[in-house]
Amino acid sequence: MHIGVYGAGYLGTVVSACLADFGNPVTCYDADGVRIYATAQGSIPFYEKNLKDVIKRNIRAGRLIYSSDMESFAGKSQVVFLAEDSCRYIEDIATNLAVNLKHDAILVLVTPVPVGTASRLEPRMKEMPNKITIVSHPLFLTDGCAVEDFNWPDRIVVGTRSTQAVQALKQIYRPLAMRGVPIIVTNHETAELVREASTAFLATKISFINELATLCEHVKADSVDLALALGLDKKIGPRCLQPGAGFGGPFVESDMEALAQLATGKNVSLRVLSAAREVGDSMCDRVVDKLSFKPNTNSVAGSASIHLAKSLMSKGAKVRAYDPVAIPDAKVEMDKMPIRYCESAYHAAEGSDALVVGTGWPEFRALDFERIKRLLRRPILIDTKNLLDGARMRSMGFQYVGMGRS
DSSP character for 220? Predict the structure, then answer.
């Protein structure tokens, strides 16, 4: 397929060159004829490692063309990457571009845009004489190594409801997919949010290590060695990047408290840690009950669910609880508190106003939810681990509530 890239600024120049380097025929368009001519001659107003070589190689191979002719550009581009550097007027630009496309096409939003942009554009696209499919496609490029980032990404994020668009993007990125680069297909809003959230999360990590570096100076620790040890912890990857009822474990709270006290004693402010603890504590208000802090264990030490159950009962709630293995330990932890322990999930559901799935036990996926619905006083299902199929639960008549899911 022929690919069009709209924009010959920083983003468009990188994207068009790298897509052509995958073996795709690419036309890079910009209304500024002077800029287009200069770029085609290898003169770009910024330095990016290896980019000039990539441009020259693909121009010589005939895969990369620069144009300021909109009619020609729109006439042959089947997939158009909208890659302006600024999101200002981006919706008007996308609409004008779609008007000029004389055939069905896929419009890929690469320009960093606010969450909700693609969904606002979709009604406009439906007014076009041809079928224009919008795809949200954030890129994660770093100045100075953008070519390397494009060729060796951590993941590819594609936001669309169109199966055809997904297949087209997978074909374009086939060289990366064959190397095992994960392709995440989601909706527009999630794809748009990924970019902002990634930046914010990186900023949080940097802020956290910077605060700890200050603490290191006061306790004669080495921040470089500390950062290396932290970064090698597998729990800091996707494994523990899941929303839920909060964090728990036998040493989590004591570790954080010890670190907070150490910093206080040295007159060092750990604001990121304080904020993390505040958010963790606030999660208790969002769910009802969770007995063991992770599946496949009977440990309830430091469990967020114990805190939740105690808090709710102190407010007059009646709690019925079931866990395949954690009940004995929970009874010790909840000594003499009026919680009712059940022998099955069905027993816990019977007569209850809401059922909470608080732990990711695989057996909870296999429950008879028609029976669960009949047993509940009201069909409210709160899934703190996003374990169940929300669409299926809703189709069965449940008021299903996941964590951080629309």
Answer: T
Max Cα distance, the chain (Å)? 80
Which residue's structure tokens are 């990711």?
A: 360
pLDDT of residue 253: 64
The pLDDT of residue 295: 58
User: What are the residue ranges in the chain where pLDDT is below 70?
Assistant: 203, 237-255, 279-305, 404-406
Amino acid making up residue 92: D
The pLDDT value given to residue 14: 96
Residues 6+ apart with CB under 8 A from 244: 283, 304, 384, 385, 403
Alpha-carbon distance 343 to 289, whole Å?
16
Going 56 to 61 to 67 to 73, the CA torsion angle's sign is negative
Q: Say which DSSP state 153 is in.
A: -
Closest C-alpha to 337, from 354, 360, 313: 313
CATH ID of 283-401, from 1.10.150.20, 3.40.50.720, 3.40.800.10, 3.10.25.10: 3.40.50.720
Sequence ranges of the chain with CATH classification 3.40.50.720: 3-187, 283-401
What's the pTM value of the predicted model, to 2 decimals? 0.69
Fold observed for domain 3-187? Rossmann fold (3.40.50)
Q: Taking Cα atoms as reference points, which of 204, 197, 195, 179 lies closest to residue 11?
A: 195
| Residue (of 10, 238, 4) closest to 112 by Cα position | 10
